[in-house]
Sequence to fold (351 residues):
Amino acid sequence: MVSFFEASLSELSVHRVGNKQQDEFYVLSDKSMHIQDELLNQLLKQYFLAPYQKINEIYRFTHPNNDLSLNEIFHFAEEVFNNGELFHENSKKIATYLYEISNHPKIKSGEVYVVYFENVQIEGDLHDAIGIFKSETKESYLKVSPAQNGFTISYEQEAININKLDKGCLIFNTEKEEGYKVAVIDQTNRNGEAVYWKDEFLKLKVRNDNFNQTQNILGVYKSFVTEKLDEEFEVEKTDKIDLLNRSMKYFKEKESFDLDEFANEVIANPEGIALFKDYKQSYEQEFETPIADTFDISNAAVKKQAKDFKSVLKLDKNFHVYIHGNKQLIEKGYDGEKDMNYYKIFFNEES
Fold:
């Protein structure tokens, strides 16, 4: 999705932002830097940009009042794109604004890097981009150096691992009227304890393209099978796994999604189809995320979601049965003498 093979790091400003609720402060640098050391320049590009090579979701800036100019980061980015001489002043405004919204007790202090890149590729096109990054996690490193008759060992504390970017966003200078293209990284917020980076600081919404349409419908269908079906029907675990397997087979074999075709081929039950369509509609209304009835399938989204479509039948703590194909080859029964359930599995060859 994002490539930095042709990218150059033009300008860099570094500030430090603490947690306002913890009575910590912020420190702003007086001027920006132009990195002349080629090795350092490459290491910084590796640190800032490499994580985005695996990013598929693209966001846009938004605002509750539907006025993009009221989104602070959109406004600062627009000023920089319009006039590069305002880069450092706006980088200070960005750091100050981040400090002002850092009110959650678990938000960590750290350095904030605002970077201007040229020629970063996204979706096949080259654009200038503004990067905003925050380093929160520090590590200790050992350094071994040759010395007379042997080696010396030293260390450095509070150092940054360039392979572990904590938080970041890339704002691409394209499609401004729609809220720019924005790619996001948030590695230290996986448990949801402080959603300030994407929701409060950046104020983003997911771009509703084929990747997100594919990801959303697969997520809705998985939730429907694993949670909603039990409210209306008695469904065996093997039947749920079969429904999930059939849906993944559909998305891997088809080039485009059609709601009616999908429902008839995968669910194949009038009551279940009606229930699924109602469930999809309820999701769209609750999360204000419309999902089209037809769209081109994104293979990248299918590959990502496939990891969550588990086809494992867990039997007590003794057995895990992986079901990948025909559910007619597995039968469930009950043994009265042992007072236990059992599964009978049919196969041709053992390997």
Notes: The chain has a mean pLDDT of 89. The CA atoms of residues 21 and 111 lie 17 Å apart. The first strand starts at residue 2 and ends at 3.
